[in-house]
């Protein structure tokens, strides 16, 4: 059964750094775009970043531009989200999901959602 597993979350102080991983099992990533999403308590889920199946196209939410970087290593069947200069407002559960080939701005277009990893940014 295809699934995605997120890891790398944790607690960090403002200004700190985390790297999230999204590992695929039961399928290979090379035909899929991977999106990162997050949901904070009491808020709707929002798209954070996405990378196309080739890695040639990446997208970012305005709130993370210049701080987050998405990348993929198809040989390791894993997508990463490097998060720098973290802010308290980045606190959320982060999820990854897949979509055939190209990114989409609509989270309903994505499937095989992972279970999420908690990111907490506080002093």
State mean pLDDT (0 to 100 scale): 96
Percent range of helical residues: under 10%
Strand residue content? over 45%
**Order of strands across the widest beta sheet?**
2-10-9-4-5-6
Rg, please? Answer: 13 Å
- SS-derived structural category: mainly beta
Low-confidence stretches: none
Shape call: globular
The H/E string reads EEEEEEEEEE
Per DSSP, the total helix count is 0
Q: Distance N terminus to C terminus?
A: 40 Å
Number of strands: 10
Give the oligomeric state: single chain
Biggest sheet record: 6 strands, mixed
Explain this structure to me?
The protein has strands at residues 3-7, 10-12, 18-25, 32-39, 46-51, 58-60, 68-73, 78-83, 92-100, 117-121. It has 123 residues and is mainly beta. Strands 2-10-9-4-5-6 form a six-stranded mixed beta sheet, with no helix packed on it. The mean pLDDT is 96. It is globular and about 40 Å long.
Short descriptors:
123 residues; mainly beta; 10 strands
Question: How is the topology of this model organized?
Answer:
Elements: E1 3-7, E2 10-12, E3 18-25, E4 32-39, E5 46-51, E6 58-60, E7 68-73, E8 78-83, E9 92-100, E10 117-121
Parallel strand pairs: 2-10
Antiparallel strand pairs: 1-3, 3-8, 4-5, 4-9, 5-6, 7-8, 9-10
Short summary:
It is built from no helices and ten strands. It has 123 residues and is an all-beta fold.
